[in-house]
Design a protein that fits this description.
The structure holds 2 protein chains of 2 kinds. Chain A has 13 helices and 2 strands; from the N terminus they run ααββααααααααααα. Chain A is mainly alpha-helical. Classes of the chains: A mainly alpha, B alpha/beta. Chains A and B meet through α1, α2, α6 and α12 of A and α1, β9 and α16 of B.
Chain lengths: ~300, ~425
């Protein structure tokens, strides 16, 4: 078998590029199927069951989905998620553009600044959560300490139901800005210098040249970051779970937090799976819309 | 030619990968033997999953080694499950995968959920046919927590209760007398107020307010002490919004919003450190927390007024891997939870005795001396006469109660409105048949 006869069917099959390619990638593909695709399919099946993850499940058809439509706590989690997303995405993307623009020059220590901007991205979410918990502690935190020194009133931050979600926005923008900055830095360095000089010669001001020369070049990066940030924001879980756990009084309960509570605290696995699929469909729709609109702007009009 | 060799190597990679995957999947579950019952040498192998680390794990290992030596036809392997917080999920995953241990550690609050698994062995018959096991020797709170609708789902593994743990130095500095057994709840409130000093950022009392079960069970002890109940005796309606319940939550709310004597930790991650750093005068907590206060000279006292407290026992659950292994597991767990063995474990770890008869063991006094404050926690077990309902809806109900308590603590609602709303949600949840 080790050396099949030349020109035999086996010889041709083994020698084909298709076979070699598939054979080498198959182990990785199998892993992805087992740990990625199978849970996705299993979740879909679970969403049509009443499954408490302990005893044999029963089929309930669309009952879980119907229940979601009438669930006020799910509706609240959707509102919190949308509020978080419409704050997080514009702030982090435009903030990253400003920072990248500032760092895209030959400053002294620019390497250090770029490192400093990226460190929060590689810091574990648990570490970030603990740091912010104590920074924002109403009694012992540094932030309230400085507010006091400035004569401003003390805030509840993560312990105030009206402020907690905004604190989470601040915390996650801090944590993820560096990623967007890196993308923008790379895009900025693709802007041809001659165009900038030509604009200057033509008498364009700083803002005008930025708007008309630089921004169009950044459109692909911006589209990518907006799509990516939106997907991440809609799936937010870690940062909330290590700080407020969805509190206080449910003010930071976003969709994935609610899903976790339903599936793993209340043993309603089928219900949790249904929530996961509603979220999946929502993200799919949002992403398609964004790509259609963004794509048209980049490639449609010239 | 080269293409052929690449193709052959690719084929080999496929086979290797397939082999690795099947053996990898096959040997999960950590050493449980695939053969049911006894191996050819007649020894029955059983596995036990526990959540102990450090010196507690050493105590477990020593006991297991001793059992294996004295019982040559049973071999027990004790495995650390990575921490008890996820013991239920891991156990359920193992059961779903078909390879699960014989004995596993399950929080008491999950008893009503795990009983639904077909692999859980109900122990009523084994206990009834073996009087030397002495089921009534376990504390009443433990027996209640291990029983779901009359079915005994586990053997008590751990027991605790809540009492006042106070910082003697802060009491001395404020000139307040230490808590006594004659305290009323008004005395408690007054002491907390006297110990509160905003200038020093010091609070008289600390409360975990993340609306989780931690928030709820602390209040449930107060509810019982005021004479209230969580649910009606038939477990069909909420009872916590009675006059006694409203009183119990009102005093807590006024301490928070009027006296401002409570450090309200809505994240439930800062309270222990804050107490250890001399910024809280009193906590209501259990023996597991004491090791986290190395910098505090603490005292322990029963809860005020009627001293009613709450206990959170956990269970050893036996899973069905065939009759031989179930019998072997019963033999082992009976030996392991015997007074003598448990006294050894408690001496090593400071855990509370799970059997009342342990108080008559020869090394009981040495145990009390070694772990200050434990004597009060042991005596306090007789104050834990009520237990939380062992029904599957309890986690939902706990969520409603937790939200009510936190909204009162944060001054967003008054006790009666908050409890009535939680009661409404509870009754709706209890009206739904099934899980």
């Amino acid at each position: 078998m080790l050396r099949p006869a030349p020109d035999s069917r086996l010889h041709r099959a083994l020698g084909s590029e298709h076979f070699a390619g598939w054979a080498f990638t198959l182990p990785a593909v199998v892993l992805i199927v087992i740990f990625g695709i199978m849970p996705i399919v299993w979740s879909a099946i679970m969403s049509f069951q009443a499954n408490d993850l302990t005893s044999p499940p029963t089929w309930v058809g669309l009952a879980n989905y119907r229940a979601l439509l009438h669930d006020p706590m799910f509706a609240a989690s959707v509102r919190h998620t949308i509020l978080y997303t419409v704050l997080f995405v514009p702030i982090s993307v435009s903030g990253a553009l400003l920072v990248a623009w500032a760092l895209n020059r030959k400053l002294r220590g620019v390497r250090f600044y770029r490192l400093a901007v990226f460190v929060p991205v590689v810091t574990s979410t648990v570490a970030t959560g603990i740091i912010f918990l104590w920074l924002l502690d109403p009694v012992f935190g540094l932030v309230n300490f400085f507010l006091d020194k400035l004569g401003l009133p003390q805030q509840g931050f993560l312990q105030n139901p009206d402020q907690a979600l905004f604190c989470i926005v601040a915390m996650t923008v801090w944590g993820w800005l560096g990623f967007d900055v890196i993308i923008y830095l790379a895009a900025l360095q693709g802007v041809p210098q001659e165009l900038m000089e030509a604009a200057e010669i033509d008498g364009a001001g700083k803002w005008s040249s930025f708007r008309n020369v630089v921004l169009p070049f950044l459109r692909p990066a911006t589209l990518f970051l907006v799509v990516w940030s939106t997907i991440s924001a809609l799936q937010l879980f870690d940062e909330i779970w290590v700080t407020t756990r969805g509190g206080p009084l449910g003010s930071t309960t976003v969709v994935v937090v609610y899903l976790y509570q339903q599936a793993f605290t209340n043993f309603a696995g089928g219900y949790g799976a249904a929530i996961a699929y509603v979220l999946f469909l929502a993200i799919l729709v949002v992403t398609i819309v964004q790509l259609k609109i963004g794509g048209r702007r980049i490639y449609g009009e010239s | 030619m080269r293409r052929i060799l690449i193709g052959i190597v690719g084929l080999l990679t496929l086979f290797l990968a397939a082999a690795a995957l099947t053996t990898g999947c096959g040997s999960s579950g950590g050493g449980t033997s695939t053969s049911p019952g006894a191996s050819p040498t007649g020894v029955v192998n059983i596995t036990m999953w526990h959540g102990d680390e450090d010196y507690a794990k050493k105590a477990d290992d020593a006991l297991v080694a001793q059992f294996n030596q004295t019982h040559p036809n049973i071999h027990v392997t004790a495995l650390y499950n990575g921490g008890n917080d996820f013991a239920l999920q891991k156990t359920l995953t193992a059961i779903a995968g078909g390879k699960y241990p014989d004995i596993t550690y399950i929080f008491g609050s999950w008893a009503a959920n795990i009983v639904k698994s077909p692999k859980v062995v109900t122990l009523n018959d084994m206990i009834a046919s073996d009087p030397s096991f002495n089921w009534n020797d376990f504390w009443p709170a433990e027996r209640l927590a291990a029983t779901v609708n009359g079915k005994i789902v586990g053997v008590p593994a751990l027991v605790d209760n809540l009492a006042i743990v106070y910082n003697k130095k802060l009491f001395d500095q404020a000139g307040v007398a230490y808590p006594t057994a004659d305290w009323t709840w008004d005395d408690f409130r007054a002491a907390a107020k006297a110990l509160t000093d905003p200038g020093k950022k010091q609070f008289g009392f600390g409360y975990p307010a993340d609306a989780s079960e931690d928030t709820v069970w602390h209040w449930e002890a107060m509810l019982w002490d005021y004479g209230g109940d969580i649910l009606t005796p038939d477990n069909k309606q909420a009872a916590f919004n009675s006059a006694q319940g409203v009183e119990a939550l009102t005093i807590l709310g006024e301490m928070a919003t009027v006296d401002k004597s409570i450090y309200i930790d809505t994240t439930n991650q800062k309270i222990q450190q804050t107490f250890n750093n001399d910024h809280i005068g009193m906590l209501v907590t259990g023996p597991w927390d004491l090791a986290g206060f190395p910098d505090v000279d603490f005292g322990v006292q029963v809860l005020p007024a009627n001293h009613q407290t709450i206990s959170g026992p956990d269970n050893w659950v036996i899973l069905n891997n065939g009759q031989d292994r179930v019998n072997a597991s019963w033999t082992f767990i009976k030996w392991f939870t015997d007074a003598k063995q448990q006294m050894y474990y408690d001496l090593q770890t400071g855990a509370l005795p799970i059997r009342q008869s342990q108080q008559k063991q020869p090394d009981f006094q040495a145990y009390l001396t070694k772990y200050p404050g434990t004597d009060l926690f042991v005596a306090n077990m007789s104050n834990a006469v009520k237990a939380r309902p062992t029904i599957p809806q309890y986690s939902k109900i706990s969520g409603y109660m937790g939200t009510a308590i936190v909204s009162v603590l944060l001054g967003k609602a008054d006790a009666k409105t908050a409890l009535d709303q939680a009661a409404q949600q509870t009754n709706a949840a209890l009206a739904v048949p099934g899980p």
